[in-house]
Design goal:
Keywords: Lipoprotein. By secondary structure, the chain is mainly β. It has two helices and five strands, in the order ααβββββ. The chain has a single domain, classed as YmcC-like fold, CATH 2.40.360.10.
Length: 108
């Protein structure tokens, strides 16, 4: 089972129907027992999500309406319950940031 975001947390739907960026008060964010993130999908409004759980090294970020973004090492891998979901990312083994400390002068 995963943690449910607090009810005041705005959702993906709000970002679709409202033209303003979402802002949550710093005090509210600090009071949450979860990791949180602001994000923007394409040219849409900024939204706010919470980390629901981590499974097999993948972070599952949830909105209030249970839309989900799956990330690994900060990279978006998959989305769930959006109008146009990202189903998978291929060739993630060739991610240049996977060994970011080994990158020197723009190359390995």
């Amino acid at each position: 089972m995963y943690a449910q975001p607090a009810k005041y947390v705005d959702t993906f739907r709000a970002s679709l129907f409202d033209n303003q960026d979402i802002t949550v008060a710093d005090q509210q964010i600090q009071a949450l027992p979860y990791s949180t993130m602001y994000l923007r999908l394409n040219e849409g409004q900024r939204i706010f999500v919470v980390l629901g759980y981590i499974e097999q090294e993948q972070s599952k970020w949830l909105s209030q309406d249970n839309a989900m973004l799956v990330t690994h090492n900060g990279r978006l891998l998959k989305t769930v319950k959006l109008n146009n979901n990202l189903l998978e990312v291929t060739n993630s083994g060739q991610d240049p940031l996977r060994n970011a400390l080994a990158i020197k002068d723009g190359s390995r």
